[in-house]
From TrEMBL:
Protein name as catalogued: 4-diphosphocytidyl-2-C-methyl-D-erythritol kinase
Binding, ATP: 101-111
Family, as annotated: Belongs to the GHMP kinase family. IspE subfamily.
Residue stretches in coiled coil: none
Residues annotated as catalytic: 12, 143
UniProt domain GHMP kinase C-terminal: residue ranges: 218-279
Domain GHMP kinase N-terminal: 73-151
Species of origin: Thalassospira xianhensis MCCC 1A02616
Pathway: Isoprenoid biosynthesis; isopentenyl diphosphate biosynthesis via DXP pathway; isopentenyl diphosphate from 1-deoxy-D-xylulose 5-phosphate: step 3/6
Reaction(s) this enzyme catalyzes, per UniProt: 4-CDP-2-C-methyl-D-erythritol + ATP = 4-CDP-2-C-methyl-D-erythritol 2-phosphate + ADP + H(+)
Length: 305
């Protein structure tokens, strides 16, 4: 059996994100509809005979990550934690193909850490129950359990309560980041207004089109948009650029920003919007995509060597 394996680390999207409270330790309680886009980073790992753990970073967004302190990267922290908890003596060579902008509200580092846990379980042939792996994931960050889960869920608590939902229709999406990183703790700290009630999202609702889902999402919000756009006003420019393109059904920020997404009525409209925005704002990261369906996930598993 090959000791090299690959795992996708798809972009996470908060279709809505309501902040419902704050814990004594400063973490915020959330109520958020999370799904995964059909684009993202890719993690590859090869087992080593010795105990060393290495990470190399490639890809269009490798930039600061590749030149920064690699030992602090969440992927290596995930690898060290898993190795200690599972008493593994082997090491691994890991590669991150970084396609998503960093610190951008679409999971990035959390998705990479979750994919690292998954790929290392395969490389080291560990059979750890999902609940145990999710506990490890939470030690790495509040968004890591949902990225490990990798399916459409209602996410509550600080990110540890994951409630499965019916599959969403495929969406014609455009993701846009203005090319500036934002600090998640800073955005949460700026969210000092009153907290909103838990959303009454119908957990059994099935949507037969992107348009019907977008209509239901109109009643929801991302409560971090105001604090984030106060710190980075370009977020408003991104939302306006997405909203003024033909066929836009909904434009919203994901996570703590600065990446925003829009749902378009058709795939053609999404592609045209992505093209127009990329032409007028060459410094922005622009990606037309869809969401991951069960079949996409199955294909990714089969395709992973
Ligand atoms: O858990 P993670 O390290 O990803 O979180 C980074 C920071 O974001 C936390 O230290 C906290 O300030 C803020 N945060 C929060 N509530 C959450 C998630 C993150 O306040 N649910």
């Amino acid at each position: 059996m090959s000791s090299t394996h690959t795992e996708p680390a798809p972009a996470k999207l908060n279709l809505f994100l309501h902040v419902t409270g704050k814990r004594d330790d400063g973490y915020h309680l959330l109520d958020s509809l999370v799904c995964f886009a059909d684009c993202g980073d890719v993690i590859t790992a090869t087992a080593r005979d010795d105990a060393e753990l290495t990470l190399s970073i490639t890809g269009p967004m490798a930039g600061v990550l590749a030149t920064g302190n690699i030992e602090d990267n969440l992927i290596l922290r995930a690898a060290r934690l898993l190795r200690a908890e599972a008493n593994v003596t082997q090491g691994a060579d890991l590669t991150l193909e970084k396609n998503l902008p960093v610190a951008s509200g679409i999971g990035g580092g959390s998705a990479d850490a979750a994919a690292a846990l998954r790929v290392l379980c395969r490389v080291w042939q560990l059979d750890i129950p999902t609940t145990e792996l999710e506990k490890l994931a939470l030690k790495l960050g509040a968004d890591v359990p949902v990225c490990l889960h990798g399916k459409t869920v209602l996410m509550q608590g600080i990110g540890e309560k994951l409630i499965d939902l019916p599959e969403l229709p495929n969406l014609s999406l455009v993701l846009v980041n203005p090319g500036k990183a934002v600090s998640t703790p800073e955005i949460f700290a700026a969210r000092d207004a009153g907290f909103t009630e838990e959303n009454l999202w119908d957990r059994t609702a099935r949507f037969n089109s992107g348009a019907s889902l977008a209509a239901a999402l109109q009643d929801c919000r991302n409560d971090l948009t105001l604090p984030a756009s106060g710190i980075l006003p370009e977020i408003c420019d991104v939302l306006n650029a997405l909203a003024r393109e033909d066929g836009c059904l909904l434009a919203r920020m994901s996570g703590s920003g600065a990446t925003c997404f829009a749902i378009y009525d058709t795939e053609n409209q999404a592609e045209r919007a992505a093209h127009a925005i990329a032409e007028s704002q060459p410094d922005w990261w622009v990606q037309a995509t869809g969401i991951q369906t069960t079949e996409d996930r199955a294909r990714a598993q089969i395709g992973a060597s």
